[in-house]
Amino acid sequence: MFLEIAKENNPKLIEFAFKLQQEGQILPDTYVLDYDTIIENGRKMKVIADSLNIKLFFMTKQIGRNPEIARGLMEIGFDGVVAVDFKETLTMIKNGIRLGNVGHLVQIPQAALKTVIENKPIIMTVYNFEMIEEINSIAKKQNHIQDIMPRVVDEDSFLYDSQQGGFDVAELSCLIDRVKELKNVRFAGLTVFPAFLYDKEQRDILPTVNMQAMEKAVKTASEKGYNSLMINMPSVTCCQGIETIHKYGGNCGEPGHGLTGTTPLHKDTVQPEKIGYVYVSEISHTYKENSHCYGGGFYRRGGLENALVGTSLENCKMVKCSAADNNIDYHFKIHGKHKAGSGVIICYRTQAFTTRSQIAVVKGLKDNKPELSGLYSSLGEKIEKNW
Fold first, then answer.
1. Any idea which fold 3-34+271-377 has?
2. What is the pLDDT of residues 290-322, one digit of tens each?
3. DSSP of 309-339
4. I want to staple 250 with a disulfide (CB 3.0 to 4.6 A). Which of 86, 147, 233, 317 is the partner?
5. Can you give the pTM of this predicted structure?
6. Would the CA dihedral through 369, 370, 371, 374 be positive or negative?
7. How far apart (Å, rounded) are the C-alpha atoms in residues 218 and 377?
8. Tens of pLDDT along 160-176?
9. Taking the domains of the chain in order of start, what are their residue ranges?
Protein backbone atom coordinates (compact mmCIF):
# COMPACT_ATOMS: atom_id res chain seq x y z
CA MET A 1 0.00 0.00 0.00
CA PHE A 2 2.82 2.42 0.89
CA LEU A 3 5.85 0.68 -0.60
CA GLU A 4 6.40 3.06 -3.52
CA ILE A 5 6.05 6.04 -1.20
CA ALA A 6 8.51 4.52 1.27
CA LYS A 7 11.03 4.07 -1.56
CA GLU A 8 10.62 7.72 -2.43
CA ASN A 9 10.67 9.40 0.96
CA ASN A 10 12.50 6.95 3.25
CA PRO A 11 14.85 4.73 1.23
CA LYS A 12 17.35 4.70 4.12
CA LEU A 13 14.84 2.82 6.25
CA ILE A 14 14.34 0.18 3.57
CA GLU A 15 18.08 -0.23 3.06
CA PHE A 16 18.77 -0.64 6.76
CA ALA A 17 15.84 -3.02 7.16
CA PHE A 18 17.36 -5.26 4.50
CA LYS A 19 20.68 -5.06 6.32
CA LEU A 20 19.15 -6.05 9.66
CA GLN A 21 17.44 -9.03 8.07
CA GLN A 22 20.44 -10.20 6.06
CA GLU A 23 22.75 -9.96 9.09
CA GLY A 24 20.28 -11.82 11.30
CA GLN A 25 19.90 -8.95 13.76
CA ILE A 26 16.14 -9.30 13.51
CA LEU A 27 13.84 -12.22 12.82
CA PRO A 28 11.24 -12.39 10.08
CA ASP A 29 7.88 -10.90 11.12
CA THR A 30 9.38 -7.71 12.51
CA TYR A 31 8.17 -4.15 12.16
CA VAL A 32 11.16 -1.82 11.91
CA LEU A 33 10.32 1.63 13.32
CA ASP A 34 12.30 4.66 12.23
CA TYR A 35 12.50 6.59 15.50
CA ASP A 36 13.91 9.75 13.91
CA THR A 37 11.20 9.98 11.26
CA ILE A 38 8.34 9.27 13.67
CA ILE A 39 9.58 11.94 16.08
CA GLU A 40 10.08 14.41 13.24
CA ASN A 41 6.55 13.72 12.00
CA GLY A 42 5.38 14.43 15.54
CA ARG A 43 7.29 17.72 15.61
CA LYS A 44 5.60 18.85 12.40
CA MET A 45 2.20 18.14 13.91
CA LYS A 46 3.08 19.89 17.15
CA VAL A 47 4.00 23.10 15.33
CA ILE A 48 0.58 23.25 13.69
CA ALA A 49 -1.30 22.08 16.78
CA ASP A 50 0.39 24.63 19.02
CA SER A 51 -0.39 27.45 16.59
CA LEU A 52 -4.08 26.46 16.69
CA ASN A 53 -4.17 25.70 20.44
CA ILE A 54 -4.98 22.04 19.86
CA LYS A 55 -3.96 19.39 22.37
CA LEU A 56 -2.42 16.19 20.98
CA PHE A 57 -2.50 12.75 22.56
CA PHE A 58 -0.33 10.28 20.64
CA MET A 59 -1.53 6.75 19.88
CA THR A 60 0.84 3.77 20.09
CA LYS A 61 -1.29 0.71 19.38
CA GLN A 62 -0.44 0.73 15.67
CA ILE A 63 3.27 0.47 16.50
CA GLY A 64 2.92 -2.11 19.26
CA ARG A 65 2.46 0.17 22.29
CA ASN A 66 6.13 1.00 21.94
CA PRO A 67 7.49 2.78 25.05
CA GLU A 68 10.65 4.04 23.35
CA ILE A 69 8.63 5.96 20.76
CA ALA A 70 6.24 7.12 23.50
CA ARG A 71 9.09 8.62 25.53
CA GLY A 72 10.41 10.41 22.47
CA LEU A 73 7.03 11.96 21.73
CA MET A 74 6.70 13.14 25.32
CA GLU A 75 10.13 14.77 25.06
CA ILE A 76 8.99 16.93 22.13
CA GLY A 77 5.95 18.16 24.01
CA PHE A 78 3.01 15.87 23.39
CA ASP A 79 0.42 16.11 26.15
CA GLY A 80 0.18 12.38 26.82
CA VAL A 81 -0.88 9.07 25.35
CA VAL A 82 -4.32 8.03 24.20
CA ALA A 83 -4.41 4.46 25.45
CA VAL A 84 -7.30 2.92 23.58
CA ASP A 85 -7.58 -0.19 25.71
CA PHE A 86 -6.87 -0.96 29.35
CA LYS A 87 -3.86 -3.18 28.67
CA GLU A 88 -2.18 -0.38 26.76
CA THR A 89 -3.01 1.94 29.65
CA LEU A 90 -1.23 -0.36 32.10
CA THR A 91 1.76 -0.68 29.75
CA MET A 92 2.10 3.09 29.58
CA ILE A 93 1.86 3.37 33.37
CA LYS A 94 4.61 0.76 33.72
CA ASN A 95 6.84 2.83 31.45
CA GLY A 96 6.15 6.16 33.13
CA ILE A 97 4.23 7.69 30.22
CA ARG A 98 1.68 10.34 31.11
CA LEU A 99 -1.88 9.21 30.51
CA GLY A 100 -3.83 11.56 28.28
CA ASN A 101 -7.16 10.04 27.24
CA VAL A 102 -8.00 6.56 28.54
CA GLY A 103 -11.18 4.53 28.14
CA HIS A 104 -11.67 5.14 24.44
CA LEU A 105 -12.10 2.85 22.56
CA VAL A 106 -12.24 0.35 25.46
CA GLN A 107 -13.44 1.21 28.98
CA ILE A 108 -11.21 0.55 31.98
CA PRO A 109 -12.41 -2.58 33.82
CA GLN A 110 -13.16 -2.33 37.53
CA ALA A 111 -10.12 -4.35 38.58
CA ALA A 112 -7.78 -1.80 36.97
CA LEU A 113 -9.62 1.43 37.84
CA LYS A 114 -7.80 2.03 41.13
CA THR A 115 -4.38 1.84 39.50
CA VAL A 116 -5.41 3.92 36.51
CA ILE A 117 -7.00 6.72 38.56
CA GLU A 118 -3.98 6.76 40.90
CA ASN A 119 -1.95 7.75 37.83
CA LYS A 120 -4.26 10.72 37.19
CA PRO A 121 -5.13 10.57 33.49
CA ILE A 122 -5.85 13.95 32.00
CA ILE A 123 -9.30 12.72 30.99
CA MET A 124 -11.27 9.47 30.90
CA THR A 125 -13.75 8.66 28.14
CA VAL A 126 -16.96 7.12 29.47
CA TYR A 127 -19.81 5.21 27.82
CA ASN A 128 -22.27 4.67 30.69
CA PHE A 129 -23.29 6.18 34.00
CA GLU A 130 -22.28 3.10 36.00
CA MET A 131 -18.68 3.74 34.93
CA ILE A 132 -18.93 7.38 35.99
CA GLU A 133 -20.21 6.35 39.43
CA GLU A 134 -17.38 3.84 39.82
CA ILE A 135 -14.77 6.41 38.82
CA ASN A 136 -16.28 8.87 41.29
CA SER A 137 -16.18 6.31 44.10
CA ILE A 138 -12.54 5.41 43.55
CA ALA A 139 -11.47 9.02 43.02
CA LYS A 140 -13.16 9.94 46.32
CA LYS A 141 -11.08 7.36 48.16
CA GLN A 142 -7.98 8.88 46.58
CA ASN A 143 -9.04 12.47 47.37
CA HIS A 144 -8.95 13.25 43.68
CA ILE A 145 -11.31 14.85 41.16
CA GLN A 146 -11.17 13.01 37.85
CA ASP A 147 -12.10 14.71 34.58
CA ILE A 148 -14.39 12.65 32.35
CA MET A 149 -15.47 12.88 28.72
CA PRO A 150 -18.69 11.24 27.50
CA ARG A 151 -18.70 9.69 24.07
CA VAL A 152 -21.91 10.87 22.40
CA VAL A 153 -24.06 9.30 19.69
CA ASP A 154 -27.39 9.94 18.04
CA GLU A 155 -29.77 7.88 15.93
CA ASP A 156 -27.67 8.40 12.80
CA SER A 157 -24.23 7.71 14.28
CA PHE A 158 -21.84 5.38 12.48
CA LEU A 159 -19.96 3.03 14.81
CA TYR A 160 -17.58 0.26 13.85
CA ASP A 161 -18.50 -3.28 14.85
CA SER A 162 -17.06 -4.18 18.27
CA GLN A 163 -16.70 -0.46 19.06
CA GLN A 164 -20.31 0.35 19.86
CA GLY A 165 -21.21 2.41 22.89
CA GLY A 166 -21.90 5.92 24.08
CA PHE A 167 -24.50 8.30 25.49
CA ASP A 168 -27.46 9.36 23.38
CA VAL A 169 -26.96 13.08 22.88
CA ALA A 170 -30.66 13.63 23.62
CA GLU A 171 -29.90 12.56 27.20
CA LEU A 172 -26.78 14.73 27.60
CA SER A 173 -28.48 17.52 29.51
CA CYS A 174 -29.75 15.06 32.10
CA LEU A 175 -26.34 13.38 32.25
CA ILE A 176 -24.62 16.70 32.97
CA ASP A 177 -27.01 17.33 35.86
CA ARG A 178 -26.37 13.87 37.29
CA VAL A 179 -22.60 14.32 37.04
CA LYS A 180 -22.86 17.64 38.87
CA GLU A 181 -24.23 15.78 41.88
CA LEU A 182 -21.07 13.72 42.12
CA LYS A 183 -18.16 15.35 43.92
CA ASN A 184 -15.13 13.53 42.53
CA VAL A 185 -15.72 13.56 38.79
CA ARG A 186 -15.95 16.59 36.54
CA PHE A 187 -17.64 16.85 33.13
CA ALA A 188 -14.73 18.14 31.07
CA GLY A 189 -15.05 17.06 27.45
CA LEU A 190 -16.94 15.49 24.58
CA THR A 191 -15.89 12.97 21.97
CA VAL A 192 -17.16 10.98 19.00
CA PHE A 193 -15.44 8.35 16.88
CA PRO A 194 -14.69 8.52 14.09
CA ALA A 195 -15.11 12.28 13.79
CA PHE A 196 -13.43 12.35 10.37
CA LEU A 197 -12.57 9.90 7.63
CA TYR A 198 -10.60 10.14 4.43
CA ASP A 199 -12.70 10.54 1.28
CA LYS A 200 -10.87 8.93 -1.61
CA GLU A 201 -12.91 10.64 -4.32
CA GLN A 202 -12.32 14.12 -2.93
CA ARG A 203 -8.85 13.23 -1.61
CA ASP A 204 -9.62 15.07 1.59
CA ILE A 205 -10.41 14.50 5.27
CA LEU A 206 -14.13 15.04 5.76
CA PRO A 207 -16.48 14.99 8.76
CA THR A 208 -18.51 11.84 9.34
CA VAL A 209 -22.18 11.67 10.26
CA ASN A 210 -20.99 11.39 13.89
CA MET A 211 -20.24 15.10 13.85
CA GLN A 212 -24.01 15.72 13.95
CA ALA A 213 -24.03 14.27 17.46
CA MET A 214 -20.98 16.34 18.39
CA GLU A 215 -22.61 19.57 17.20
CA LYS A 216 -25.74 18.82 19.21
CA ALA A 217 -23.66 17.93 22.25
CA VAL A 218 -21.59 21.12 22.11
CA LYS A 219 -24.78 23.18 21.85
CA THR A 220 -26.35 21.38 24.82
CA ALA A 221 -23.20 21.75 26.92
CA SER A 222 -22.99 25.46 26.08
CA GLU A 223 -26.58 25.96 27.15
CA LYS A 224 -25.65 24.36 30.47
CA GLY A 225 -22.76 26.80 30.88
CA TYR A 226 -19.89 24.61 29.65
CA ASN A 227 -17.93 26.58 27.07
CA SER A 228 -14.37 25.45 27.73
CA LEU A 229 -14.60 21.70 27.25
CA MET A 230 -12.11 19.40 25.58
CA ILE A 231 -13.64 18.74 22.15
CA ASN A 232 -11.93 15.55 21.07
CA MET A 233 -12.13 14.73 17.35
CA PRO A 234 -10.08 11.63 16.59
CA SER A 235 -9.24 9.79 13.36
CA VAL A 236 -6.90 10.71 10.51
CA THR A 237 -5.04 13.12 12.79
CA CYS A 238 -2.00 14.39 10.91
CA CYS A 239 -0.80 17.84 9.84
CA GLN A 240 -3.75 18.30 7.48
CA GLY A 241 -6.10 16.58 9.92
CA ILE A 242 -5.17 19.00 12.71
CA GLU A 243 -6.27 21.89 10.52
CA THR A 244 -9.54 20.03 9.89
CA ILE A 245 -10.07 19.61 13.64
CA HIS A 246 -9.65 23.36 14.09
CA LYS A 247 -12.00 24.11 11.19
CA TYR A 248 -14.80 22.14 12.85
CA GLY A 249 -14.32 23.58 16.33
CA GLY A 250 -12.25 20.84 17.94
CA ASN A 251 -9.32 21.35 20.28
CA CYS A 252 -7.93 17.82 20.69
CA GLY A 253 -6.59 15.23 18.25
CA GLU A 254 -5.01 11.81 18.51
CA PRO A 255 -2.39 11.00 15.84
CA GLY A 256 -1.61 7.34 15.28
CA HIS A 257 -1.01 6.47 11.63
CA GLY A 258 -0.25 10.15 11.07
CA LEU A 259 2.93 9.66 13.09
CA THR A 260 4.13 7.00 10.67
CA GLY A 261 2.81 8.66 7.52
CA THR A 262 0.46 5.75 6.83
CA THR A 263 -3.06 7.20 6.73
CA PRO A 264 -5.08 6.71 3.51
CA LEU A 265 -4.47 10.41 2.82
CA HIS A 266 -0.74 9.70 2.62
CA LYS A 267 -1.25 7.05 -0.04
CA ASP A 268 -3.01 9.36 -2.47
CA THR A 269 -1.49 12.77 -1.75
CA VAL A 270 1.86 14.31 -0.86
CA GLN A 271 1.94 15.16 2.86
CA PRO A 272 4.57 16.55 5.27
CA GLU A 273 4.86 13.27 7.19
CA LYS A 274 7.20 10.58 5.87
CA ILE A 275 6.87 6.81 6.11
CA GLY A 276 8.04 5.72 9.58
CA TYR A 277 8.06 1.91 9.47
CA VAL A 278 8.38 -1.12 7.25
CA TYR A 279 7.51 -4.77 7.82
CA VAL A 280 10.38 -7.22 7.36
CA SER A 281 10.22 -10.91 6.56
CA GLU A 282 12.22 -13.38 4.47
CA ILE A 283 11.56 -16.06 1.90
CA SER A 284 10.91 -19.39 3.59
CA HIS A 285 10.32 -21.70 0.62
CA THR A 286 8.89 -22.09 -2.84
CA TYR A 287 5.76 -24.09 -3.55
CA LYS A 288 4.82 -24.75 -7.17
CA GLU A 289 5.09 -21.40 -8.98
CA ASN A 290 5.17 -19.07 -5.97
CA SER A 291 7.27 -18.44 -2.89
CA HIS A 292 6.19 -17.91 0.70
CA CYS A 293 7.65 -15.63 3.33
CA TYR A 294 7.17 -15.88 7.08
CA GLY A 295 3.98 -14.22 8.31
CA GLY A 296 2.61 -13.12 11.65
CA GLY A 297 1.93 -9.45 11.01
CA PHE A 298 -1.17 -9.58 8.86
CA TYR A 299 -3.87 -6.96 9.36
CA ARG A 300 -6.83 -7.44 7.04
CA ARG A 301 -7.42 -3.71 6.54
CA GLY A 302 -3.76 -3.09 5.84
CA GLY A 303 -3.99 -2.89 2.06
CA LEU A 304 -1.35 -5.57 1.45
CA GLU A 305 -0.36 -5.42 -2.22
CA ASN A 306 3.36 -5.62 -2.95
CA ALA A 307 6.70 -6.59 -1.47
CA LEU A 308 10.34 -5.86 -2.22
CA VAL A 309 12.34 -9.10 -2.42
CA GLY A 310 16.12 -9.23 -2.42
CA THR A 311 19.13 -8.55 -0.24
CA SER A 312 19.36 -4.77 -0.51
CA LEU A 313 17.49 -1.82 -1.94
CA GLU A 314 19.85 -1.85 -4.92
CA ASN A 315 19.21 -5.43 -5.99
CA CYS A 316 15.61 -6.04 -4.90
CA LYS A 317 12.53 -6.21 -7.09
CA MET A 318 8.89 -5.44 -6.41
CA VAL A 319 6.44 -8.32 -6.69
CA LYS A 320 2.84 -9.04 -5.78
CA CYS A 321 2.19 -10.24 -2.25
CA SER A 322 -0.95 -11.60 -0.59
CA ALA A 323 -2.22 -13.24 2.59
CA ALA A 324 -5.30 -15.32 3.29
CA ASP A 325 -7.54 -13.60 5.84
CA ASN A 326 -9.47 -16.75 6.79
CA ASN A 327 -6.55 -18.70 8.26
CA ILE A 328 -3.61 -18.15 10.59
CA ASP A 329 -1.06 -16.05 8.68
CA TYR A 330 1.81 -18.50 8.98
CA HIS A 331 3.03 -17.27 5.61
CA PHE A 332 2.40 -14.57 3.01
CA LYS A 333 2.38 -15.62 -0.63
CA ILE A 334 5.07 -13.94 -2.72
CA HIS A 335 4.35 -14.23 -6.41
CA GLY A 336 7.09 -15.95 -8.39
CA LYS A 337 10.07 -18.06 -7.38
CA HIS A 338 12.66 -16.48 -5.07
CA LYS A 339 15.73 -17.68 -3.21
CA ALA A 340 15.18 -18.84 0.37
CA GLY A 341 16.63 -16.38 2.86
CA SER A 342 16.03 -13.35 0.65
CA GLY A 343 14.71 -10.35 2.49
CA VAL A 344 11.09 -9.24 2.10
CA ILE A 345 10.08 -5.65 2.78
CA ILE A 346 6.40 -4.68 2.96
CA CYS A 347 4.80 -1.36 3.89
CA TYR A 348 1.10 -1.36 4.65
CA ARG A 349 -1.25 -0.10 7.33
CA THR A 350 -0.98 -2.10 10.50
CA GLN A 351 -2.30 -2.49 13.99
CA ALA A 352 0.83 -4.13 15.36
CA PHE A 353 -0.71 -4.80 18.77
CA THR A 354 -3.10 -7.29 17.15
CA THR A 355 -0.23 -9.31 15.65
CA ARG A 356 2.44 -11.66 16.96
CA SER A 357 5.17 -9.56 15.37
CA GLN A 358 8.29 -8.19 16.99
CA ILE A 359 9.16 -4.50 16.92
CA ALA A 360 12.63 -3.16 16.18
CA VAL A 361 13.37 0.51 16.91
CA VAL A 362 16.08 2.08 14.77
CA LYS A 363 17.77 5.38 15.57
CA GLY A 364 20.32 7.47 13.67
CA LEU A 365 19.06 7.08 10.11
CA LYS A 366 18.79 10.85 9.67
CA ASP A 367 22.51 11.21 10.48
CA ASN A 368 23.55 8.20 8.38
CA LYS A 369 24.56 6.40 11.57
CA PRO A 370 21.78 3.85 11.95
CA GLU A 371 21.70 1.48 14.87
CA LEU A 372 19.26 -1.01 16.31
CA SER A 373 18.13 0.70 19.50
CA GLY A 374 15.81 -1.93 20.97
CA LEU A 375 13.67 -4.99 20.37
CA TYR A 376 10.12 -5.27 21.70
CA SER A 377 7.09 -7.47 21.54
CA SER A 378 3.99 -6.21 19.73
CA LEU A 379 2.58 -5.37 23.18
CA GLY A 380 5.38 -3.03 24.23
CA GLU A 381 7.52 -5.44 26.26
CA LYS A 382 11.31 -5.19 25.93
CA ILE A 383 12.79 -8.45 24.66
CA GLU A 384 16.31 -9.81 24.36
CA LYS A 385 17.74 -11.49 21.31
CA ASN A 386 17.42 -15.27 21.79
CA TRP A 387 18.63 -16.51 18.41
1. Lyase, Ornithine Decarboxylase; Chain A, domain 1 (2.40.37)
2. 999 999 999 888 889 999 999 999 999 999 999
3. EESSTTT-EEEEEE--SSS--SEEEESS---
4. 233
5. 0.96
6. positive
7. 40
8. 999 999 999 999 999 99
9. 3-34+271-377, 36-260
